[in-house]
From TrEMBL:
Keyword check for Signal: yes
Lineage of the organism: Bacteria, Bacillati, Bacillota, Clostridia, Eubacteriales
Name of the protein in its database record: NitT/TauT family transport system substrate-binding protein
Localization in the cell: Cell inner membrane
Entry-linked SMART domains: PBPb (SM00062)
Domain Solute-binding protein family 3/N-terminal intervals: 32-249
One Gene Ontology term, aspect cellular component: plasma membrane
Claim: Chloroplast is one of the keywords in the record: no
Length: 308
């Protein structure tokens, strides 16, 4: 018999899936920058910057909230927004397919965990189990592969399913899945519910891992270079200033989560030093190829812009 789902999981799912585009249909303004995001802790640096940038320079960041990566990516790829906080592998795939985008910074550092049911004690125990990831093109997929490799297993040894992030804690609670890896705070939700535990943190499997990135469209960079430069500089400064206390304050404003969940989630993540180094990117590109996410990821020089 399936367990009754806690009320806050249901309410969090409804909040996450709701798409609130705010003023996204309004006429473009010369001093407005439209940035797409999902309501996750991995987006906190861009959420924090939205308020700070207007105070400092008069540039306004119009935050456009989406309920899924597919919706967000469609807006980014069609230039309906100027940029996004997005899974970097999705942006790499867009670039590979000829879409004009550039990664200009990381979204965060670390901040991912592999959560498993309480009866699983090692990666070897995952053999034959069902494991959820949010998207094939994700660092969560890579981390699953890395975890399996510690036990001499590969992706063919588990049943991989793609689920919306909000569904994962409840799916673990009901026994539909045996583990998951996803953007925060949904890992923390499973842990705080007591239905799962952390088997690995991202830094245990992949030091200097890349996950979400801040991506701008080539159109925005080309047409409004000075604004793009100011935006990126302000974003990185906002990340450096985003300590745990400030991050929780921002998260409480934008995410529908309890204090306990946020306290757990924010133990695993940081937002300082958000430059994308060539060494870290090339390691990501190698993993993307090794694990079959892409045969031809874009080169660092073609995809990453660090020279504002």
């Amino acid at each position: 018999m399936k367990k009754r789902l806690p009320a806050f999981i249901i309410s969090a799912a409804l909040a996450f899936s709701a798409v609130s585009c705010g003023k996204s249909d309004s006429k473009d303004s010369e001093n407005t920058i439209k940035i797409a995001y999902l309501p996750i802790t991995h987006s906190l640096a861009v959420l924090e910057e939205a308020e700070e940038l207007e105070k400092e320079s008069g540039l306004k960041v119009e935050l456009v909230k989406y309920g899924s990566w597919a919706e967000l990516l469609d807006a980014l790829n069609s230039n309906r927004v100027d940029g996004a906080s997005v899974l970097i592998e999705l942006a790499m795939k867009s670039k590979e397919e000829g879409i004009g985008v550039k990664a200009v910074a990381l979204g965060h550092r670390d901040g991912n965990v592999i959560v498993v049911s309480n009866d699983i004690d090692s990666a070897a125990d995952l053999k034959g189990k069902t494991f959820a990831i949010p998207h094939r093109q994700s660092s969560h997929n890579i981390l699953l592969n890395d975890a399996l490799a510690t036990a001499g297993l590969n992706i063919g040894d588990v049943n991989v399913t793609e689920l919306a992030p909000t569904e994962m804690p409840s799916a673990l609670a009901s026994g539909q899945i045996d583990g998951y890896c996803v953007a925060e705070p949904f890992g923390a939700m499973g842990v705080n519910l007591g239905v799962g535990k952390v088997l690995f943190s991202s830094e245990e499997l992949w030091e200097e891992s890349l996950c979400c990135g801040l991506v701008l469209t080539d159109k925005f960079i080309d047409e409004r270079y000075d604004d793009a430069k100011s935006f990126v500089e302000s974003y990185k400064s906002a990340g450096n200033a985003l300590d745990k206390e400030k991050a929780k304050e921002v998260a409480k404003k934008y995410l529908n989560q309890t204090d306990d969940v946020l306290d757990t989630s924010l133990q695993w993540i940081s937002y300082n030093d958000l430059d994308i180094t060539e060494e870290a990117y090339n390691e990501l590109a190698d993993k993307v190829k090794e694990y079959g996410l892409s045969d031809n990821p874009p080169a660092y020089a073609d995809f990453v812009k660090n020279d504002f």
